[in-house]
Structure formats: structure tokens, C-alpha cells
Amino acid sequence: MGYEITTTIEKEKCIGCGKCVAVCPYDAIELIDSKAVVTGKKSMHCGQCAAVCAQQAVTVDDLVVPTLQGELNAVTSQLFDTVMHRRSCRNYKKDELTRTEFENLITFGQWAPSGTNAQKWKFTVIPNRSSVEAYADAIGRFYKKLNRQAENPALRLYAKLFLKDALGKYYRRYYRQVQESLTAWEVEKKDLLFHGATGAIIVSMSPGAFCAHDDALLASQNICLGAHAMGIGSCLIGFAVEAMKRDNRIAQVIGIPEAETVYAVIALGRPKYQYPNPSGRLPVPPRYFTR
Ligand SMILES: Cc1cc2nc3c(=O)[nH]c(=O)nc-3n(C[C@H](O)[C@H](O)[C@H](O)COP(=O)(O)O)c2cc1C
Predict the structure, then answer these.
(1) Tens of pLDDT along 208-219?
(2) Domains detected in the chain
(3) Are 51 and 25 a contacting pair, CB within 8 Å?
(4) 135: helix, coil or strand?
(5) What spacing in Å lies between the alpha carbon of 21 and ligand 1's midpoint?
(6) pLDDT for the residue 2
(7) Average pLDDT value for the chain
């Protein structure tokens, strides 16, 4: 999984604060003799390491920093700043969000567009760390069972013949990463699923929405941007969504009715680190159609 790593760190600029080590989702950077050193072979090219470094010691080749062109009014500049500086947060402080903050985030979500204006979204709040942990336990039980199945060569062969190799694909792509996360959770209570978030919002849809997936993800992006504007860290957790799609007992644990479908899980909390720089994106030249 991941791209070949293209991260470089200028040793002279590095002050050994360790923030790039903490934010890297691939654990590709280590502190050696109080200097950050790239030791991993793979990366997600998310640029979090470069974004968090106040010394600007880190660069990730292949990433560019897209900016707007021409003259910008204040509203555009402010909106762009919010969009550009939102980061997936994977390090949280221990203090929890208030009910008002959760409800303001949901208001951001509600202002999203929805196909045929269906507005069938539902927002389930996980308001504190102990509730996040109970939720994570339920998801952990699902992945433990899935990993036991994936370990079994006979089941993988069956899945190859009759289920489009679904279990084999999972085994090759995710098994090891999930196993490491389960062990970290069980042995050290290290939370590689929700990254120590103190809250979450789950976006589900009641039946009847024509574009349910699109509506839910647009609401989710509004919540993530609103969170950033409010100084709150957020991170979409696809691993939680996948588990909930396959095991409806998880939804039962947190009180989501069976008729609803979960499309997004957003981890939330107060961010431990600020990101002074934009992280960059892979370049994408526009394509034009003219006639
Ligand atoms: C649909 C979706 C699912 C994601 N699932 C996870 C996840 O399970 N765990 C995680 O740490 N990050 C997850 N992310 C965050 C991405 O890794 C992140 O958006 C990407 O690396 C870009 O970084 P940025 O959000 O800081 O710009 C997910 C993002 C999306 C859009």
C-alpha cells in the first residue's frame, strides 16, 4: 500500500520537535539523535509532515501547493484558507467538545446540497472519549473476526471462486495493517482507528434519498470544513464505515436504526498540533472540452 516515499528533511533546519513523526500516518519518520529522519519506504503523499513543520524543514516531492489566481476578495481568500488548511487530524488533546460545538457542526452538515433536496441525513453524536472507546471496541470485534476468516486459506479460496476474491483482496491489502491496529488497541490501548479522538459524528441516511451517498459525503465535508473553521480537528474514518456496512450489530450498539445506512464516520476533537503550512496536492492539469 502507499506510494514510494519522496519525503526529504533538511537536517540543519530540523529542531527535533518530533511533530512530523507524530502526524505521519505511515510511521515513515523517526527521531534519531534528536533529528527527524525518513526511515520508511512508503508514504501516503499526504504532506502532513511538511504542513506541520514550523521550520519548513520537510518537503515531499511530487506535491505542489495549488493556489487561486487573479484578484481575490476577502471572502474568497478566507474560504480558500479554510479549505486549504483543513487537515485530517490524527493527534488530539484530551479535552472533549461541547454539545453546542457538536450541534453547530451538524448545522454545517445540514447546509449541504442534497439530490432532489431530500435531506434524509441523520447525525449520530458520539460525545466523549469513553463512548468513542465503546464504539471502537464494537468495530474491533468485527475486524478481529474478519482477520480470523482472512487467515484461513480455505475461506480465501472459496472467496476467490465465488466472491470475486473479496477475502483475498482484503488479506493482501489490509490484513497486516488491521492486525497491527488490533494488537496496539488490545495490548497498549493505542487507538489507530480513531487516533484518540474525543468525539465523532456518524452520518447516516434514512431510506428514500435518491443520491444518498453523495448527500452524506457533502454533509460530511461541510462538517469537516466547519470543524476546521471552529478550531476543531476532524478525520473521516473509512475503516469504521466499512465495518458498519458489513455488520449491523455495530449500528445497534450506538443506537442507529436498522433502516438507516451509514456513509461517513467523522472523528473529532481538539487538535494537538497546528499546521502552519499547506500540505500540497498531486498536480492535476485541467481538461477542457471546447467546440
Ligand atoms: C472516504 C475517506 C476515508 C478515509 N478514511 C480514513 C481512515 O480510516 N483513517 C484515517 O486516518 N484517515 C482516513 N481518511 C483521511 C485521508 O487519509 C486524508 O483525507 C488524505 O490523506 C489527505 O489528507 P488531508 O485530509 O489531511 O488533506 C479518509 C478520507 C476519506 C476521504
Answers:
(1) 999 999 999 999
(2) 1-69+275-291 (3.30.70.20), 88-274 (3.40.109.10)
(3) no
(4) helix
(5) 18
(6) 79
(7) 96
